[in-house]
Amino acid sequence: MGTGIARTGAILTRVDPASFKDWRTRVGLTQQGLADAWRMNVRTIKGWEAGRSAIPFHVLYAMAAYEAKLKPPKGVTVIAVETGYETGPRE
After folding, report:
1. How many structural domains compose the chain?
2. At what angle do helices 17-26 and 59-67 cross, to 10 degrees?
3. Is the pTM above the cut of 0.70?
4. Which domain, by its residues, includes 26?
């Protein structure tokens, strides 16, 4: 059985919906919990998992950062996963 992560040579190219959902449940998050953690709309998570929309490549980095429990330093601007736009720090 594959990992659900497509590879071209040594380059990761995408995450399939089933593998994304498996990862989310493995790290103990609901769809809403992940949406809150990543500052995005839960409809996006649902769309990714249902295969209605492609999971952006940069989500692989967000998955790895979440699993490693990485957090931005206080006062540092972060990039919202859904949009790629900068958002200010949470209070």
Report:
1. 1
2. 20
3. no
4. 5-87
Q: Which two tokens stand for residue 45?
A: 């998570």
pLDDT in tens, the chain (91 residues): 445 555 455 555 678 999 999 999 999 999 999 998 888 899 999 999 999 999 988 888 889 888 888 876 676 655 556 555 444 444 4
The tokens 């998050």 sit on which residue?
Answer: 29
**DSSP character at residue 73:** P
Report in angstroms the alpha-carbon separations of 35 from 7, 10, 41. 26, 30, 6
CATH of the domain at 19: 1.10.260.40
User: How much of the chain is in helix, strand and coil states, percent to nearest 5?
Assistant: 40, 15, 45
